[in-house]
Design goal:
2 domains; Porin; five-stranded mixed beta sheet; mainly beta
Length: about 425
């Protein structure tokens, strides 16, 4: 017999043995337990450690498709003023639990570790599922405990006072480098941020800087190209009611890429949300109008023969976001225009969608397209060949775009609660 055929036959026997062996792992008791267990679909892409959840919530079956679930769970989150996250867990019964729904909200402090966050997630998922599990045979196998080790009288008033008065500060520094005999480069960035968020006010102040340095070695000489940007950015926002907010911003920055030796941008803003802000984690439709004044000092003379100038204009934006059982959508269209010359404007559209088409089939699409007519800071004599190739300068253009897409289709067993972390899941 051909040696190659012998090897193929041996491999088939080997894998058949392991396939047969694995099929005996699911005994009758395990299958019976799965039949009685609650089937759930957890819609939580980014905020959930699914391996940890599966290992610590073994009393339910995890469905690949929401149509097979007894309970559909959607998890949405919003950033809090302390740098943490507010989570909203929505439970919706299906099939025999149709019409039974619930909701749990909780907050993870920004100082939590990842382990503390995932422990809290499991705890609140279990609490939300309890009304459904209580209607299944598995409820007889559950015990409910209360930890009373922390006495209420031990918590003193001064221990819950906020000595920082809701202010949150952060310092960030980073960079990377690479090189070889004829080339080396360095990228670095840093920022200092201060933010205060209450039910009525949101204040944010930040200093930031970034630099990109590229060195090309040619014999005894070196060609150095540097791109830098530094800035101070601030805004103050006040809530008026469930739909209206007002704000003002002040930005002061420099950018060698955009030919800006100094730029000052100041203006008020008004926002209206079609839905109450309490529902913002699930759906938003915001209308924003912002008039502004900009003062520019340019590094080099612009295509309009300016070394510095005052610019007045306005910006209008419509933004929509929603999350539902079928997927999610976010879209925004904005336009910017200068008053002194209405032909100087831009229009930009951002959109993204994630849809569950049919059982196991998901489609993801996102993109951006911009019509650009307001490049007032371009250098009069353009960019050198080196600056073009190294992307050191902003270039004249009438438009820009980007897009991405993805399709995922999954089929097979709808029951698979097993977690197998060895070798990271594969070789």
């Amino acid at each position: 017999m051909n040696p190659l055929k012998n090897r193929i036959a041996a491999c088939c026997v080997f894998f058949s043995f392991f396939f047969t062996l694995s099929s005996f792992g699911q005994d009758a008791d395990t299958l019976k337990l799965r039949e009685n267990a609650l089937n759930i679909f957890l819609d939580c892409d980014w905020d959930c450690d699914m391996t940890y959840i599966r290992q610590n919530m073994t009393m339910v079956n995890y469905m690949r498709d929401q149509k097979d679930a007894d309970v559909y769970i959607m998890v949405v989150s919003q950033r809090t003023g302390s740098g943490g996250d507010e989570y909203q867990l929505r439970f919706e019964g299906q099939g025999k639990f149709d019409g039974q729904s619930g909701e749990i909200k909780y907050t993870n402090p920004g100082t939590n570790t990842n382990d503390e966050n995932r422990i809290a997630m499991v705890k609140h998922l279990q609490a939300g599922l309890l009304p459904y599990i209580s209607q299944t045979p598995l409820f007889d196998k559950m015990t409910i405990q209360f930890d009373d080790s922390a006495k209420a009288e031990e918590v003193k008033p001064e221990e819950v006072e906020d000595k920082w008065n809701n202010w949150l500060y952060s310092i960030n520094v980073g960079g990377w480098m690479s090189g070889q005999a004829s080339f080396r480069q360095f990228n670095g960035w840093s920022s200092v941020n201060a933010r205060r968020v209450t039910e009525t006010w949101k204040l944010s102040f930040s200093l930031s800087g970034n630099t990109n340095r590229q060195v090309f070695v040619n014999g005894d000489s070196e060609d150095v190209y540097t791109r830098e940007g530094y800035g101070f950015y601030s805004y103050v926002i006040r809530a008026i009611n469930d739909h209206w907010s007002v704000g003002v911003n002040q930005d002061l920055f420099t950018s060698t890429f955009s030919n800006l030796e100094l730029a000052n941008d100041f203006g008020p803003a008004l926002e209206y949300n079609l839905f109450p802000y309490q529902e913002s984690a699930v759906k938003q439709m915001r209308f924003i109008y912002r008039p502004y004044h900009r003062y520019h000092i340019y590094e080099d003379t612009t295509i309009y023969n300016k070394k510095k100038e005052h610019l007045f204009g306005h910006r209008f934006e419509i933004a929509y976001e929603t999350q539902a059982k079928w997927g999610s959508v976010d879209a925004a269209i904005s336009t910017n225009q200068y008053f002194h010359d209405p032909s100087l404007y831009n229009v930009e559209l951002d959109a993204g969608i994630n849809i569950r088409i049919v059982k196991g089939l998901n489609v993801r699409l996102s993109g951006n397209v911009a019509l650009i007519r307001d490049q007032v800071a371009l250098k009069k004599f353009g960019a050198s060949d080196e600056e073009v190739l190294l992307q050191q300068r902003e270039l004249a253009t009438n438009y820009s775009y980007w897009g991405n897409f993805g399709i995922n289709y999954t089929f097979g067993s709808i029951y698979n609660n097993v977690v197998f972390p060895r070798f990271g899941g594969g070789l």
